[in-house]
Amino acid sequence: MRKVYLVLLLILGGCSTGEREIDISSIKWVQDFGYNTEEVFLFKVSGRIPGPQIPVYINGEKLYMLVDPLFDYMVIKESKIKGIDFEPQRINTKMFLGSEMMFEEGFVHNVKFLNKEYSDLYILALKKSDLPFRPDGIVGKNFFSNSILAIDYQNRLLGVKEGPLNFPNGIPERYKIIKFYMDFTSPGYTSCLKFNGSIDGMNSVITISTFFSISTISPEMVKSIAGGRIPSTYTIDTLRVENQTFTEIKCIVEEKQLDIDPEGRDLVHLTLGVDFIKDKVLIFSPADSLLLLGQAEK
Asked: Could you tell me which of 15, 71, 120, 218 has the fewest CB atoms within 10 Å of its CB?
């Protein structure tokens, strides 16, 4: 196969860290899903924010925002939109992990990211949060509703191409397939990506998020499985989702885990975080309601 190279220049904190030359033709998920060079982007991670962050330009101002399929819209810290032309519309509050988050909803203009441009964009400006919120903002799953999103932690690459999936002969066997559903808290407003599985033999509802560096599990689930005193951490021996099996998942026991989507139809017992994703390639295809997990490789 002819080699196709991406030369990527990563700029962190205003200083160039040098160029990376990547032969994307040798990366299996690029081959499997037919991404071209204009559809593959470099993302950055950091110790404080281990999830994938991409540059987002608003009226020429550059912010680094987390790409996360748990959130719906674009969320931006209020401090980061000062000086940017922001047209507020209304105040809204939402509970997340038992903590109140206050947003001012409104419009920003001239937004650019991932080779797309928006003259006007409706965003949520985060005014107050009892929960630590470290990134400049979040790019939620609504921006990928008609796309196939790939997150490759090993190579720090993100792919975005038009969906849905197209595999007449079936999805390659190297990917584990998870069928998910959207649990709508308020129809047309917010939704939570969820899928059913079993944690050490107990039926459970699961979600996945890059907002969390470590996977979290509810104390109620741990109590149901192990009984006795609830520890601060718990290692899942076996997680089964349909016919897929994952083993040895270390979790923090999060007291507020069931409050990740408190108004949803199904309470979430487990949130799979960056620690679960980092040695995998995550493919997210909303049009197919599928998550695909492949083994990452350099």
From this structure: 15
- Supply the pLDDT for residue 186: 53
Q: What pLDDT shows up at residue 9?
A: 41
Output the CATH code of domain 176-295.
2.40.70.10
CA distance 214 to 217: 10
Q: What is the DSSP letter of 24?
A: G
Please tell me the predicted confidence (pLDDT) of residue 15. Answer: 31
CA separation for the pair 16, 25 (Å, rounded): 25
Three-class DSSP labels, 14-77: CEEEEEEEEEHHHCHHHHHHCCCHHHEEECECCCCCCCCEEEEEECCEEEEEEECCCCCCEEEE
Residue 185: predicted pLDDT: 65
Would you state the pLDDT for residue 286?
Answer: 95
Burial of 234 (0-12, 13-18, 19+ CB in 10 A): buried
Topology match between the domains 5-162 and 176-295: yes
- Among 3.40.50.2300, 3.30.70.2760, 1.25.40.10, 2.40.70.10, name the CATH number for the domain at 5-162: 2.40.70.10
pTM of the predicted protein model? 0.90
Whether cis (ω within 30° of 0) applies to the bond prior to 164 is: yes
Alpha-carbon gap, residue 67 to 277, rounded angstroms: 13
CA distance 139 to 60: 17
What are the boundaries of each domain within the chain? 5-162, 176-295
Residues of the chain with pLDDT under 50: 1-2, 4-5, 7-18, 187-189
Which position has the token pair 């890059």?
Answer: 210
